[in-house]
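Dear support,

Our group has been running a series of protein-ligand predictions, and this particular one with zinc ion is the one our PI (initials K.S.) wants archived with full inputs and outputs. We had some confusion internally about which version of the output was final, so please treat the block below as the authoritative record. The input we submitted was:
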Amino acid sequence: MAERTRFGPAGVPPMFRLMGADLPDVPRLLREEDLDAFEYEAVRWGPKPQITREHAEKLGAAAKENDVRVSLHGSYYINLSGKREIVEASKRRLIASATAADWMGAYVMVFHTGFYGRFEKDFAFRNCLEALKEVSAEIRRLGLKVKLGPETMGRNFQVGTLDEIMTFNEEVEGTQLVVDWAHMHALHHGALKKTEDFRSIAERIEQRLGTERMKGMHCHFSKIEFNLQGERSHHPLTEARYGPDFRMLAEVIADLQMHPTIICESPLLDVDARKMKETFKEVLESKQSKA
Ligand SMILES: [Zn+2]
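Confirmed final output from the archive:
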């Protein structure tokens, strides 16, 4: 698949459902909207895939035909640093999601790693790291091709600071970097205020993970509301009182010649994904006219 910056929604846009679209219709409808990525939401799944293999494969075939890049968001019910039974159940959920992700040809399975709970933060993080190594080994044993995508998280009780996520990417085989910019903005109480703030994060990533992993990161983006603990809720791009501003990220993507996949998690899904794509085009064009 050609390396370029791609845009798409987190889940099936409500309008598609109103139109009576079935899951395998989604890639064609996205393409008609000039979008080229789609994140399938498996966020309420238990220990077994909640989609048939046939249906998932149809989605995958349609995505290929329409040049839409598929990712899958795994179950929210994951904690790789809890009691033994919880960790084992979490691993089964991750394997179920990874299995279905492979059926649909998804390139990454995004997920939330866990919670610090009563543990010391570094201890909880180490628990997650060890469990992730086991999941990674199991995925390879099963011959699954999907990459593991632990995501940067937005609340101060969740495992998933940028440094933690980078360590997972360094130490666990078969991982893909997943950066949720809204979560980082919320966790650090509105830290993404100017283009330089985005650029310095991209540079930090490049230093640790190398240029290719930085350029090809999988992103989530929306505006976000936060309190002292971090994330409260995702908001549409038009809401001026919330950050972060997508144009700043677009500047950095253009300057560093990145080719991320950007999934829109605002309540307006495809509508805001298109807005981001438009903004990105404007940024590219203004840079070309200056060059
Ligand atoms: Zn997520």
